[in-house]
Design brief:
single chain; 237 residues; five-stranded antiparallel β-sheet; 4% helix
Length: 237
Amino acid sequence: MFDAETFNVGQFRRTQATNYTTAIDYTQDKIINEADIMMDFYDPILYLTADNVIDSLNSYYMSFSVNQIPDRDQKFTIELRNKEPLSEDTQTIRTFEIPKGVGTVPFELIFNPNATYDSIVFLLRRDALDYQQYNEDGTNGRFLKVTVDRFDRILNIVDTELKVLFPKIVNGLKKIGIQGPPGLLFVLNGEEMRVGRSGIYELYYDDITIKYIGFVLKKSLITQDGLDFFLMDFKYY
């Protein structure tokens, strides 16, 4: 993929590594969201185990689905927190929208924490109708029904694989070219990225050093082992 210049080049195939992600352990519960002094609303929360807190040194992948309701659209925000003590330091990750309907809507995202956190909250944006709705369990308003399908730490193959295969890599990569299935999800220096429709992703900026790159592999019907395949060429000094 690269023109001949005075630099080192390497190539990495997906089958050269066996592990690209590690699963995060958690328990799911609900937390009181005191939106009004007269009543409490509840939102889903994931409590991470002591060995699985998330931190700023790693990137993470989550896929989940949320139940629709038939009468109106919904919006919710994913927020990182710490539970003991409940800290005012939080990080807002992303806001999602759910169209009204009957069924579930799938979502997925990659995120990079700005500190260490042990809780993830799904904060539903409330409206006036929530103050008029009373549920059988005595709670008020809607409750967001979230099903988490996958929650992983994304391994940084620059450190886990490439520096082993290419010992001359010192600080990271300078340029990359990835061939893979359209939509292949990966993280690059903490940013969520995808391979485009052409099946090729290229980053050729000399002033960008790539120190973290990792891939989220999914099932494939066209590979022998049933997982997405990719090929990455890269430049390094």
